[in-house]
């Protein structure tokens, strides 16, 4: 609001991705729009596509503008997973309802039906990160990929270490100052950076962690998984004409986007399925892109994506290509770290990786980047952006 | 006259009686309103309706109380007549055979509450507030509240409202039993009708049987003692007699019709006291200043306020403005300073906004307050408030930089205490946009803001800045860009004199006692600690440059304390040592507190203050003496019952003041007591 008052005054619609809206704000977008003082007459809606929510909001806004339905849209993503509520089990809820409606002589009888297990809360966060259809937690899907693509624990930990080192470097260089807004909490604490980064971690420390999802033999640990955090990001989207009229300096251009779906058990390969059609449409090879942002849900999952592009059979059978697409160079991939080091506030991550791809292009002088993510439930999203 | 009270009978036979006092924005009670009400009541006596709903046709509220100006104009016997007639009228209204309901929105105060109390029931809108604030004007209720309030709420609760003058919001009034129901506008008429259907309420002298049984002379003596003790913790009987007379009457008569009789005599007596006359004058002064400064809806061109500098003052100004409805961004180069300011702001929101605990982030002040480390808010701001450290070079640099990013129409207000606006204006391309908004510490408590006009300040800047001050519930006093403006100029000689007396060996407790005996809200030693000795010293040094004679030598004691880092309350030690913000004071022996010597001490403190006020008039720093009175009362806690420094000087006699100053000048061989030439114009 404060940075670009003119552009904010021109916003016609607000679209916000949110993976786990709180019960007070089911339409998180509207509540957020009103709270930032955007005006009662500005419509707002929320989108939910799990880990793809924050990219879905941009994609919807992008298409609205492309269709000529709007000129300026505020699109973003958010989640406050530290606020995810504890829920009652459904049998507990039924028991409470019976107790409330029971007439007094009945009440004691109903009350006596209480069982201790009813007092156990359901942690909605865990429920949300579990795929009920295939009955697998997100971490378990990463175990599936690690097994199928033979990603070793050491490779995953090495990747995770890199994520921390890369993020620590950009934070120290101050390259995120434009991107990260310093926040202050009501109790007077300063949050000037994502605090999940562990610049002092080492292979030994990472190796010492136990498997988080499938102990004792699993290999996906808290150290090589993304961190469950809070976050939010916004982008102002505008047509070329509107941006010019507002005298705004655009960060870049959205060129294309794609969504794909696959077996929920292998949701981690979503980036491969979503990005490849974009590459094909634009006649691009993996190496034609200057930067890649693949959301780091799990180190094993990112590495599985890389392996899949190098696998001839997979590229032929699943992507309909003649041969393997090849390798993405590590110095083009997630160059400033990712969800493993700075966190994965589910609904915000999609917006963040698009924003960061644009900022990183600007910094490195690159031309094109793809931001892509795997999505719980078996989907993938990808967005091709270019610098100006 | 006919359209003052409108009566509409509905199909249920209920008479809806609306009051719309002609030529006023709020309903107040005066003779015309009461005379016309008599006609209404006579009509109902002849032809009673099935019920009566009393309401106000004014947007602002029900009835704000008696016409204060009228009170001042009435002769003693005429006043007695008005009160007696008014009470008889309310008795007749109460005796009507049908049920009556007061349908209340907005303010329902003083005489307005007394009219509502004569109804069987009170149904209020959520924005309503009720109270008997008469003691704040040195009076007691005049139309029966001193009897009807304790009868309805119980002696303890009812008397508390009368003795403190406290105003209750709608919810508090309901839980006290003053309102029967509180509903939003959409249900107000339905609720009033439902209350009529409940019928007439039986009249009882006491809230309950137990209350009645306890209403005996010995029981009351005990209660009265408690009340006296509580009241004297806040007020001195010799300065503020009204609540003490009220307690006497309660002890004598209890909750009875006799109390109702006594009320009139007391009211008439109290209305003649200097205290009440001065308090009413101050009240009207504040109202007048508010009306002068406020702008009609839509004319205030300030929506977003950007505050630069998140130190003590900047933080408080920003939080207060957010609380009062403005969009606020607060910035500072030091993130830790900003973080502390955020914490303070949220504490303020929590104490001032009842709903914040339950609704948290959804409450407006939280949304309107932005901690803006990057300082981006300057682009959106209509008003930029400078609360930077008092360094001219720093301020000039910042002003020059931010003017390039500001909106064309945006104003800059500086909260400087010791610098001159004309020096700062040089850094601006448009010096006309610079105005002073000088707040007082603590902002949440101090009602005054000095609105300072520099040579080139535009009229628009002055008008908008003053209207902004009023919009955040402050009293705005305009003054010229003269060192120390009004309050610091007048207060500094007083504080310095106190420091000199300390050096001479007077106990700080005794100095404060002398000033408090005079009627100051707080003694000068404590005030200096609260202001901050570093700040007081800085102001004094700047003032000394401009007015060396009147300011005199700066006592070494202050310089030493500042040197040692003892700044007052904020550092835990100044003249006093502080524990949790409270000074550690020694008790004074009775023989130390000889009235004559205390009065002499008070003279030595107060007269230099008065002398500086005379200079302010002579130098035309303010346009009239009312502004000085208001500034010193609202900005420095000058005894309000004395009507302000100039009114006090006039009441005491300008000649006497001048000769007392001369005597002090001789006694201390000090030019600082030399009577200012300004007294000459005041004598005339």
Automatic annotation (TrEMBL), chain B:
Molecular function per GO: enoyl-CoA hydratase activity; long-chain (3S)-3-hydroxyacyl-CoA dehydrogenase (NAD+) activity; NAD+ binding
Keywords: Fatty acid metabolism, Lipid degradation, Lipid metabolism, Lyase, Multifunctional enzyme, NAD, Oxidoreductase
E.C. no: 4.2.1.17
Domain 3-hydroxyacyl-CoA dehydrogenase NAD binding, first and last residues per copy: 304-481
3-hydroxyacyl-CoA dehydrogenase C-terminal domain residues: 484-578
InterPro entries per UniProt: 3-OHacyl-CoA_DH_CS (IPR006180), 3-OHacyl-CoA_DH_NAD-bd (IPR006176), 3HC_DH_C (IPR006108), 6-PGluconate_DH-like_C_sf (IPR008927), ClpP/crotonase-like_dom_sf (IPR029045), Enoyl-CoA_hydra/iso (IPR001753), FA_oxidation_alpha_subunit (IPR050136), NAD(P)-bd_dom_sf (IPR036291)
PROSITE patterns in the record: 3HCDH (PS00067)
Record bears the keyword Ion transport: no
GO biological process: fatty acid beta-oxidation
Catalysed transformations (reactions): a (3S)-3-hydroxyacyl-CoA + NAD(+) = a 3-oxoacyl-CoA + NADH + H(+)
Pathway: Lipid metabolism; fatty acid beta-oxidation
Assigned protein family: In the N-terminal section; belongs to the enoyl-CoA hydratase/isomerase family. In the central section; belongs to the 3-hydroxyacyl-CoA dehydrogenase family.
Official protein name in the record: enoyl-CoA hydratase
């Amino acid at each position: 609001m404060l940075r670009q008052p003119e552009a904010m005054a021109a916003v016609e619609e607000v679209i916000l991705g949110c993976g786990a809206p709180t019960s007070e704000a089911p339409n998180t977008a509207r509540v957020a729009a009103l709270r930032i003082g955007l005006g009662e007459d500005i419509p707002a809606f929320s989108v939910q596509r799990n880990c793809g929510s924050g990219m879905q909001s941009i994609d919807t806004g992008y298409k609205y503008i492309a269709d000529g339905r709007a000129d300026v849209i505020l699109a973003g993503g958010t989640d406050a997973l530290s606020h995810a509520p504890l829920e009652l089990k459904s049998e507990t809820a039924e028991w409470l309802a019976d107790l409330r409606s029971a007439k007094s002589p009945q009440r004691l009888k109903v009350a006596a039906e209480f069982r201790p297990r009813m007092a156990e809360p359901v942690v909605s966060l865990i429920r949300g990160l579990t795929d009920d259809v295939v009955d697998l937690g997100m971490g378990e899907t990463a175990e599936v990929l690690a097994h199928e693509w033979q990603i070793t624990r050491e490779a995953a930990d090495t990747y995770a270490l890199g994520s921390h080192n890369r993020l620590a470097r950009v934070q120290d260089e101050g390259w995120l100052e434009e991107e990260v807004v310093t926040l202050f909490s009501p109790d007077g604490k300063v949050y000037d950076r994502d605090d999940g980064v562990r610049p002092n971690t080492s292979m030994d420390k990472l190796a010492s962690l136990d498997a988080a999802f499938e102990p004792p033999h699993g290999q996906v640990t808290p150290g090589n998984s993304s961190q469950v955090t809070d976050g939010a990001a916004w982008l102002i989207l505008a047509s070329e004409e509107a941006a010019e009229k507002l005298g705004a300096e655009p960060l870049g251009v959205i060129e294309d986007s794609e969504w794909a779906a696959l077996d929920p058990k292998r949701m981690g390969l979503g980036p491969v399925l979503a990005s490849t059609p974009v590459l094909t449409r634009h006649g691009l090879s993996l190496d034609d892109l200057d930067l890649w942002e693949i959301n780091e849900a799990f180190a094993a999952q990112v590495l599985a994506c890389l392996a899949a592009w190098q696998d001839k059979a997979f590229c032929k059978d699943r992507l309909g290509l003649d041969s393997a697409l090849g390798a993405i160079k590590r110095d083009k991939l997630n160059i400033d770290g990712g969800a493993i080091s700075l966190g994965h506030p589910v609904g915000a991550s999609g917006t963040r990786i698009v924003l960061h791809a644009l900022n990183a292009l600007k910094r490195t002088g690159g031309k094109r980047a793809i931001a892509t993510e795997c999505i719980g439930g078996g989907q993938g999203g990808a967005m091709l952006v270019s610098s100006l | 006259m006919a359209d003052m009270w409108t009566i509409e009978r509905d199909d249920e036979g209920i008479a809806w009686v609306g009051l719309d006092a002609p030529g006023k924005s709020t309903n107040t009670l005066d003779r015309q309103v009461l005379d016309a009400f008599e006609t209404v009541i006579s009509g109902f006596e002849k032809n009673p309706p099935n019920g009566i709903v009393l309401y106000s046709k004014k947007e602002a509220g029900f009835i704000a109380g008696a016409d204060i100006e009228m009170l001042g104009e009435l002769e003693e016997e005429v006043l007695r007549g008005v009160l007696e007639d008014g009470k008889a009228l309310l008795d007749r209204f109460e005796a009507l055979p049908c049920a009556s309901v007061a349908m209340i929105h907005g303010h329902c105060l003083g005489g307005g509450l007394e009219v509502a109390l004569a109804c069987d029931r009170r149904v209020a809108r959520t924005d309503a507030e009720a109270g008997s604030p008469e003691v704040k004007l040195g009076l007691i209720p005049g139309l029966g509240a001193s009897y009807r309030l304790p009868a309805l709420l119980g002696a303890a609760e009812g008397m508390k409202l009368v003795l403190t003058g406290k105003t209750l919001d709608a919810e508090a009034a309901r839980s006290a039993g003053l309102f029967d129901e509180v509903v939003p506008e959409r249900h107000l008429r339905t609720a009033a009708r439902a209350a009529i259907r409940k019928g007439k309420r039986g009249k009882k002298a006491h809230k309950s049987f137990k209350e009645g049984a306890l209403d005996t002379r010995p029981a009351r003596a005990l209660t009265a003692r408690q009340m006296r003790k509580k009241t004297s913790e806040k007020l001195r009987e010799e300065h503020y007699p009204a609540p003490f007379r009220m307690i006497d009457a309660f002890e004598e008569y209890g909750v009875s019709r006799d109390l109702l009789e006594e009320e009139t005599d007391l009211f008439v007596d109290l209305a003649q006291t200097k205290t009440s006359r001065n308090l009413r004058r101050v009240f009207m002064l504040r109202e007048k200043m508010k009306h002068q400064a406020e702008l009609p809806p839509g004319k205030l061109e300030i929506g977003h306020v950007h505050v630069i500098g998140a130190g003590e003052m900047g933080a408080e100004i920003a939080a207060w403005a957010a609380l009062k409805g403005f969009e606020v961004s607060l910035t500072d180069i030091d993130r830790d300073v900003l973080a502390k300011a955020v914490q303070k702001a949220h504490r303020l929101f929590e104490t001032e906004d009842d709903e914040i605990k339950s609704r948290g982030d959804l409450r407006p002040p939280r949304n309107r307050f932005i901690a803006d480390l990057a300082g981006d808010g300057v682009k959106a701001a209509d008003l930029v408030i400078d609360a930077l450290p008092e360094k001219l070079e720093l301020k000039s640099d910042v002003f020059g930089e931010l003017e390039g990013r500001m909106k064309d129409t945006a104003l800059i207000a500086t909260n400087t205490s010791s610098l001159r606006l004309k020096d700062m204006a040089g850094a601006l391309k448009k010096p006309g946009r610079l105005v002073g908004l000088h707040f007082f510490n603590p902002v949440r408590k101090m009602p005054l803001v000095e609105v300072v006009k520099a040579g080139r300040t535009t009229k628009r800047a002055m008008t908008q800045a003053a209207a902004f001050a009023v919009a955040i519930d402050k009293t705005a006093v305009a003054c010229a860009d003269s060192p120390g403006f009004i309050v610091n100029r007048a207060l500094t000689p007083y504080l310095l004199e106190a420091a000199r007396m300390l050096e001479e060996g007077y106990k700080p407790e005794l100095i404060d006692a002398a000033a408090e005996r005079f009627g100051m809200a707080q003694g000068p030693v404590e005030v200096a600690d609260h202001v901050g000795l570093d700040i007081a010293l800085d102001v004094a040094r700047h003032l000394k440059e401009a007015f060396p004679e009147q300011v005199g030598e700066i006592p070494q004691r202050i310089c030493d304390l500042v040197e040692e880092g003892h700044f007052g309350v904020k550092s835990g030690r100044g003249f006093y040592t502080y524990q949790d913000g409270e000074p550690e004071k020694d008790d004074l022996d009775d023989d130390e507190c000889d009235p004559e010597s205390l009065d002499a001490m008070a003279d030595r403190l107060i007269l230099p203050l008065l002398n500086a006020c005379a200079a302010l008039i002579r130098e035309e720093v303010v346009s009239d003496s009312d502004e000085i009175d208001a500034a010193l009362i609202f900005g420095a806690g000058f005894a309000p019952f004395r009507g302000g420094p100039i009114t006090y000087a006039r009441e005491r006699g300008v000649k006497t003041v001048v000769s007392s100053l001369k005597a002090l000048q001789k006694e201390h061989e000090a030019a600082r007591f030399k009577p200012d030439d300004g007294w000459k114009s005041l004598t005339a």
